[in-house]
């Protein structure tokens, strides 16, 4: 059983506690005796040697071999899968995963990465891999794939010098005349145009970014890819004035259903909506409690009723604004996509009603999508502000929706 092997390897290769303890004692002794710097540095170096697990050296040797880096990426993917499924567990396995992640972060730094553009003339295996790995908006067929790499579209990926031609992370871009509010217009099922009029292009929309190698989770690739693509687009199309995402909001529906479950059980009372809103919702669902609404949200059935969609429009928009702006995990945005783009220095710019009407979009975020706007001259300061002070830069639209939430909801 391959999934069990890493656990045994971890335990066998863990530093011997007595040796590490003795080395630590010598470091303390050197400091207390105020010995010369060379002796202290030597003692500290010896301690570092004993604290490093033996498999780290093995990984370094493997990384130098042909195909070794690919093997280590796949090994970490197996480790993560084993940890997630509880097939392997324990501090030694988690430590190995962390050590491997840190080593991969060094090996996959920007200096070793190549930016490659995908076109319809790219190798078939590259197109197939990108199609198979698309995690945000699945590719339907080859016509759809041709559209995504054709006119008014760009597709880029990072490859590594030790794994040439292998997509590691992929970014899809739509070239438009304004900031898109709906993914339907971008991935619609129509034949791609043969040529593009560059004079019509003023905006670049990043609408999908997908990691193709699960073993590289947590390795900072997405941020560098976006920065490199921005530079590439500025070079090719200097007239572009705006850079923005059109991003999904995974987890919103689940969060909302959880909030509904936590509401008071009193019939006719709900702290997420105004009295008039809840009265209309209750009349349309035929249930003064939250149970029917939760069921409708979980099954996507609510979009079948135009009246219910109309009633839910305003409350869902303000709830979504609060979810992105106000819900936190350790002080940072709870939503992982929001946290990623805010760390990059973007602005939480616009929430779009029915931006994704696919079953997947309705189920994940009640059909809403969000634009994170990249004002290039402000990204560095925005990123520093978010990372240091955990402050979210947001547009007037988002702040107005947040204010409505705070006024109308009693959470």
UniProtKB/TrEMBL annotation:
InterPro entries: Malonyl_CoA_deC, Malonyl_CoA_deC_C, Malonyl_CoA_deC_C_sf, MCD_N, MCD_N_sf
Malonyl-CoA decarboxylase C-terminal domain residues: 111-374
Biological processes annotated in GO: acetyl-CoA biosynthetic process; fatty acid biosynthetic process; malonyl-CoA catabolic process; positive regulation of fatty acid oxidation; regulation of glucose metabolic process
Region Disordered: start-end pairs: 1-26
Gene3D superfamilies, per the entry: Malonyl-CoA decarboxylase, catalytic domain (3.40.630.150), Malonyl-CoA decarboxylase, oligemerization domain (1.20.140.90)
Residue intervals of the Malonyl-CoA decarboxylase N-terminal domain: 31-108
Protein's name according to its UniProt entry: Malonyl-CoA decarboxylase
GO cellular component term of the entry, any: peroxisomal matrix
GO-annotated molecular function: identical protein binding; malonyl-CoA decarboxylase activity
Source species of the chain: Serinus canaria
């Amino acid at each position: 059983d391959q999934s069990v092997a890493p656990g045994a390897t971890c335990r066998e290769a863990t530093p011997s506690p007595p040796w590490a303890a003795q080395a630590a004692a010598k470091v303390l002794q050197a400091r207390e005796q105020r010995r010369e710097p060379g002796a202290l540095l030597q003692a500290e170096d010896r301690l570092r040697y004993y604290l490093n697990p033996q498999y780290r050296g093995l990984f370094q040797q493997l990384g130098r071999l042909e195909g070794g880096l690919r093997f280590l990426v796949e090994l970490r993917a197996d480790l993560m899968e084993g940890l997630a499924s509880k097939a392997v567990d324990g501090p030694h396995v988690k430590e190995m995963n962390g050590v491997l992640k840190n080593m991969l972060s060094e090996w996959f730094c920007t200096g070793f990465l190549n930016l490659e553009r995908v076109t319809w003339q790219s190798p078939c295996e590259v197109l197939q891999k990108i199609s198979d790995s698309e995690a945000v908006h699945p590719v339907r067929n080859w016509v759809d794939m041709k559209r995504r790499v054709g006119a008014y579209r760009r597709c880029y990926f990072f490859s590594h010098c030790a794994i040439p031609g292998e997509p590691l992370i992929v970014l899809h871009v739509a070239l438009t005349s304004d900031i898109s509010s709906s993914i339907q217009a971008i991935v619609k099922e129509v034949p791609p145009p043969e040529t593009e009029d560059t004079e019509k292009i003023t905006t670049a929309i990043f609408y999908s970014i997908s990691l193709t190698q699960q073993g590289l989770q947590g390795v900072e690739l997405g941020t560098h890819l976006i920065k490199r693509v921005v530079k590439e687009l500025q070079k090719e199309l200097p007239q572009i004035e705006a850079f923005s995402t059109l991003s999904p909001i995974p987890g919103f529906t689940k969060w909302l259903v959880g909030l509904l479950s936590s509401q008071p059980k009193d019939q006719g009372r709900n702290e997420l909506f105004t009295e008039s809103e809840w009265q209309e919702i209750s009349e349309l669902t035929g249930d003064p409690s939250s149970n029917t609404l939760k069921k409708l949200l979980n099954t996507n059935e609510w979009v079948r009723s135009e009246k219910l969609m109309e009633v839910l429009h305003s409350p869902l928009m303000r709830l979504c604004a609060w979810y992105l702006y106000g819900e936190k995990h350790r002080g940072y945005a709870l939503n992982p996509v929001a946290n990623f783009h805010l760390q990059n220095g973007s602005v939480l710019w616009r929430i779009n009603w029915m931006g994704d009407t696919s079953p997947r979009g309705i189920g994940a975020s009640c059909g809403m999508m969000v634009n994170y706007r990249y004002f290039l001259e402000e990204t560095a300061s925005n990123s520093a502000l978010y990372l240091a002070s955990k402050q979210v830069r947001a547009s007037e639209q988002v702040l107005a929706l947040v204010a409505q939430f705070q006024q109308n909801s009693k959470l």
